[in-house]
Amino acid sequence: MIHHTKKPSPQSNVETLVFFLLVLFVFLCPFVYLKGLYNYVRLPQSALVQTFSILFGLVVFLTRAVFKHPLEVKQHPLNIAVFCFIGWTFVSSVYAHNHYEAFNQWVNWAACIGVFFLSQQVLSSDHRVFKMLAAIYAAGLLTAIIGIGQYLFGIDIIPQSAPPSATFANKNMAAQFIVLTLPLGMSLLCWAKQKTDVWFAAISSGIMMVFLVYTQTRAAWVAVFFEIILIFAGLTLLFLNNKTARFWDKDKTIATLVGIFLILLCVNIGPDGVKWQFPSLFNRVVSVFDHRPNLPVIPPSEALPSNTKDFRNTDKDSGSVRLAIWKNTLEMIKKKPVTGVGLGNHKIYYPLFHATAVKEEQFSETHQLSNVHNDFLQFFSETGLIGGLVVVFVFLSFFKLTAKTLCTRTDSVFFAVMGVGVSVAGILVNSCFSFPFEMPIPPLIVMIYFAIVLCVSQPTGYPGIKVPEKGLAVLIVLCVPLLWYSVRYYDRDITCDRNYLQAKTFETRREWTSVIAAANAAYALNPNRKKILSYAARGYIETGDYQKGIDALQTVIKAYPYHMNALLNLGVAYSGLNQHDTAMGYYQKVLDIKPDFSKAHMNIAGIYMGQKQYDKAVASFQTAAVTEPDNAMILYNMGLCQVYLKQYEQAARILERTVAINPAWPNAQLNLAILYYQYLNKKKQSVLHFKKALEQNPNVQNRDQIKKIIDHK
């Protein structure tokens, strides 16, 4: 008998292609990077996510229009919650001070949420769901393999800031992706029926765990530990619902033991070969719970006066720094508890709060906060209580639906949903110590997971909102210009970022003309990135074109009113134009942000020196020296002021300390010698320092007179 199989319809073939387009996109996203950029991972990944979401929407809308198949979205609480989330974050972007920082984040979330709604149209069967999960898990496994290769064999083809980072630039970001994908392997191990699937799940999960150990990322370790607990809880739930269910056997036990052995073996293998690592790993784990500051012993001779605040950097461990940031962020939340400061604008206002509750020791001219390392606190501070309630609504809706599905299914769908739910829970734990939702990929994967649970749960009783043919036509018309704009925008922004990296590179070489050219070229390509102008301004100031520097910096501080470096350089520029009162005003704004900023105190002292107000100059230098007691430049200038004030003994002590710190400074040696010879009548000490000045600079000023003094000692 001949069996005739039903030939797939054109509509079915096209929809299958659309689905595989989505699968391919999700798999490839984590491996996108571009060398030669400053943001060589985040920017290209954002470009791909946002551009693809529009392209995918266009494809889905066209497909539905051609085959006259309506677009439908169920009025499920999860869909409503996600819609409320993107709506309120849009509102918070509108009232934010810096709209670029706000919408830069909002657009990425909007793209991921767009994929969430579109995925519901193509994840039409359990079979497709499993293929999507397989693609995500394969991406996680490949990430781990790349990272292990970087760690063990020093593979440096892919750029990275903190290895082993795979294709995520930073090992913490790579670890977050493993947190988001590893539970799928654990669930596969529990569900697998074939020996090959069992061994694949056990070995691949072991590989991913090994990579996590290599990253030394404590936040990821905490998250994975929590995920393992949830996996056991899920299996317990399955057993209680169906005591005849068999999800474990001898083969799985053996495969799991082999996987554990693989982990134990590999964690003791490093770039230099086999090395016992368990003591250091144990200490690393213990340090998760120990955030005590490491306080140095201050000798009595260096003790600060009781009425002087100690600005020394006594606590550098990351845990204490993060706790300080979190406490200060809570103070920010208290200022605007209902609406927050606006999406993406925590970094704008944080300088005002960096020492409100606890002094954040790392905040400085070169280290200024971009992320809170706690997504919940950052989101709450930016979107307020309203935003916090919306986020709770989103995740409660998701976990409620997940729990309901787990309670009603005992088949393969149970294990798929368990893996997805545990992954989302794990990344939320990770979010308490990091910022995965500020990046392009984790929100995308989470939205795919949301769509998967919504599709496999098949909730009933929720009416759908159907988009008619005319509505599809409108969506298609909107997608075309959006797609064109997205491609054009990111083409320019990527070129902008390349120029920005060049400006930073030229700045380190002090090639100021090249800095100006590269920074202006970058800014012309993307005028929203105002901070780029701070590099051009620095170039203008260093080359003496103060007014152009001022114009550039005024643009920067309109967007970033508490940008400490921009305010400081405005003071420098106005000083260059001899507008000292205006310069003093900007220096004071810097000190309002960071009272212990020694460079601002030095610059104020410089103005006082120019005005011959030496007593005020000394006071400012002394304040600067509290923060930088071993800064030879501060001490040298303080000593000169004390000479002008005829405080010769004090000046001698200060200049002695200067040459002790920097003995190869001929001017310091010379001035100390003159002080001893001319004012303190200490000929022997003066000759000693005159000799050192001549040794260091044979062409020193008044060389002949100095030689006569030495000869007549």
Describe the structure.
With 713 residues, the chain is mostly helical. The chain is built from 28 helices and four strands. The chain has helices at 10-28, 42-66, 77-95, 99-122, 126-153, 171-191, 195-215, 218-241, 250-266, 278-286, 318-335, 346-353, 375-408, 412-431, 441-457, 469-509, 512-525, 532-542, 546-559, 564-576, 580-593, 598-610, 614-627, 632-644, 648-661, 666-679, 683-696, 703-711, and strands spanning 71-74, 269-270, 273-274, 464-467. The strands form two sheets. The chain has a two-stranded antiparallel sheet with strand order 1-4. A two-stranded antiparallel sheet has the order 2-3. Helix 4 (99-122) packs parallel to helix 15 (441-457), helix 8 runs antiparallel to helix 14 (412-431) and helix 24 packs antiparallel against helix 25. The model is unreliable at 288-316 (pLDDT under 50).
What is the SS-derived class?
A: mainly alpha
> Compute the gyration radius: what is it?
31 Å
The strand count comes to: 4
Strand order of the largest sheet: 1-4
| Count of helical stretches | 28
Largest sheet features: 2 strands, antiparallel
Principal-axis shape: elongated
Provide mean pLDDT, rounded. Answer: 89
Which residues sit in consecutive blocks of at least 5 with pLDDT less than 50?
Answer: 288-316
Strand content: under 5%
- Helix coverage percent of residues? over 70%
Alpha carbon gap, first and last residue: 123 Å
